[in-house]
Design goal:
By secondary structure, the chain is an alpha/beta fold. The protein has helices spanning 11-25, 43-48, 60-72, 91-99, 128-133, 146-156, 234-244, 259-269, 292-298, 303-314, and strands at residues 8-9, 29-33, 53-55, 76-82, 105-110, 139-141, 163-166, 172-173, 188-191, 196-200, 221-225, 228-230, 246-254, 275-281. Helix 2 (43-48) links the parallel strand 2 (29-33) and strand 3 (53-55). The longest helix is centred in the N-terminal third of the chain and has 15 residues, at 11-25. It folds into two domains: 8-173, Thiamin diphosphate (ThDP)-binding fold, Pyr/PP domains (Rossmann fold, 3-Layer(aba) Sandwich); 188-314, Rossmann fold (3-Layer(aba) Sandwich).
Length: 315
């Protein structure tokens, strides 16, 4: 593995830039904001398309109902907030007004996971995937970096299905290949291997590329980016696990209701029983810290925890 420092970039900025580009081509794209225009990088959109930008203030349920109404009138609507507010506060309205009616609303939620660090437990949303995965008609995506964020937003903007896209607060490493495309329901094998399958979503997956341990140097890791959490790419996942017989899932989310639980269900349905370790937050709330890596180490989902999991699963 290279010790070269990765280039950092913002998933929020990638979202704002891509949405501006898509809106210039599609006059049906509308934005409903919950008083977070600046944070979600929507200032340019609001200035350029004032008739397509609706500021609802701190009123998540109302904003969700407005987004659903716009979608029923034929618009492609981006409902933008933090994940600790949407889907946490407005879940019932998302269920009844958006999903039940199969409305073309894209829920874009930033500040997800422990990466929110200094904001503490109230803003470190660790349950959002569980909340949206369970909803019929809802698709769920978690881009690994800014490059993939652009590709996902471009695809969902042209889809007619309700969707949830999980973004994070800080700038994060770029490691998604620009040459790769994004397809709903498909995963990408970012690194081929034969000894252990490592699955994940979001920026935390970059940890799998940062394993610098002499005793593990000869191991062949297969790293798969599962940014499409629902629908899940069963074929790619099962093929890899059948090959390696060992599986580690890493995610910045609660163990309950996350990607790891979805994959465990998939394995049982297909009568597979590989060695399996799930690295995720274990039934705890977050807390504030100066840097997210401190939290990753504390909750045992960082590079140290992943290194230990690899040693354990190979023994």
């Amino acid at each position: 593995m290279s010790n070269k420092k990765p280039t950092l970039s913002s998933t929020r900025q990638a979202f704002g830039d891509t949405l501006n580009l898509m809106a210039s081509k599609n006059k049906n794209i509308f934005v409903v904001s919950v008083d977070l225009k600046s944070s979600l990088k929507l200032s340019k959109f609001a200035k350029k398309y004032p008739n397509r930008f609706i500021e609802c203030g701190v009123a998540e349920q109302n904003a969700t109902a407005i987004a659903a109404g716009l979608a029923k009138s034929g618009k492609t609507v981006f409902l933008c907030s933090y994940s600790s507010f949407s889907p946490a506060i407005n879940w019932a309205v998302i269920k009844q007004s958006i999903c039940y009616n199969n409305c073309n609303v894209k829920i874009i939620s930033a500040h997800s996971g422990l990466l929110t660090s200094a904001y503490g437990a109230t803003h470190q949303m660790l349950e959002d995937i569980a909340l949206v995965r369970v909803l019929p008609n809802m698709e769920v995506f978690s881009p690994c970096d800014a490059i993939e964020t652009k590709k996902i937003i471009s695809v969902v903007a042209n889809s007619k299905t309700p969707a949830y896209v999980r973004l994070v607060r800080p700038d994060t490493p770029l490691f998604f290949d620009k040459k790769l495309s994004f397809t709903i329901g498909k995963s990408h094998v970012l690194k081929k291997g034969k000894d252990i399958t490592i699955l994940g979503h979001g920026p935390i997956l970059h940890s799998a590329f940062q394993i610098h341990n002499q005793s593990l140097a000869k191991l062949s890791l297969e790293i798969i980016n599962c940014s499409s959490i629902k629908p899940l790419d069963s074929k790619t996942i099962l093929k890899s696990v059948k090959k390696t017989g060992r599986l580690i899932v890493i995610e910045d989310h609660q163990k309950i209701g996350g990607l790891g639980e979805a994959i465990a269900h998939l394995l049982l349905e297909n009568n597979l029983s590989p060695k399996f370790i799930h690295l995720a937050v274990d039934n705890q709330f977050g807390q504030s810290a100066r840097h997210c890596q401190e939290l990753y180490d504390y909750y045992n989902i960082g590079i140290k925890a992943l290194t230990s999991a690899i040693k354990k699963i190979i023994s």
